[in-house]
Specification:
This protein has about 110 residues and is of the alpha+beta class. The chain is about 30% helix and about 35% strand. The chain has three helices and four strands, in the order βαβαββα. It has helices at about 25-35, 55-65, 95-105, and strands at about 5-10, 35-50, 70-80, 85-90. Strands 1-2-4-3 form a four-stranded mixed sheet. The model has no long low-confidence stretch (mean pLDDT about 80).
């Protein structure tokens, strides 16, 4: 499609080798997502636990920074998991604007 989106939410299984989503967590996929974002659009993806799966969380962050000028990690308590879960926002918008928006919504930054 040639349609552009303001936001794309990537909600797939946890990142990592031998996980079903390993084919999603790559530069080509996020480049494709970026190509379908409107100006100042954002992508958000879960990145696993920033504490229990630190390596995967870090790898998702590195991947997002390869494609977008701004990568913002944040956390949200997921009741069904019983823990704080990590996410990344990727955008070419200014980092300050993203941080301010998350703070206004009450999301903890990681």
């Amino acid at each position: 499609t040639n349609e552009l989106f303001d936001i794309v939410v990537v909600d797939v299984t946890d990142p990592g080798v031998s996980k079903p989503s390993q084919t999603i967590y790559n530069k080509a996929f996020f480049k494709c997502v970026k190509d379908h974002l409107a100006q100042n659009g954002i992508v958000v993806t879960q990145a696993g636990s920033a504490w229990f799966t630190k390596q995967h969380f870090s790898e998702v962050g590195k991947l997002i920074t390869q494609v977008f000028s701004t990568a913002v990690p944040y956390g949200e308590f997921i009741h069904s998991f019983g823990s704080l879960w990590g996410f990344y926002i990727g955008t070419d918008s200014r980092q300050h604007d993203v941080y301010r928006s998350l703070k206004d919504l009450g999301h903890p930054l990681l």
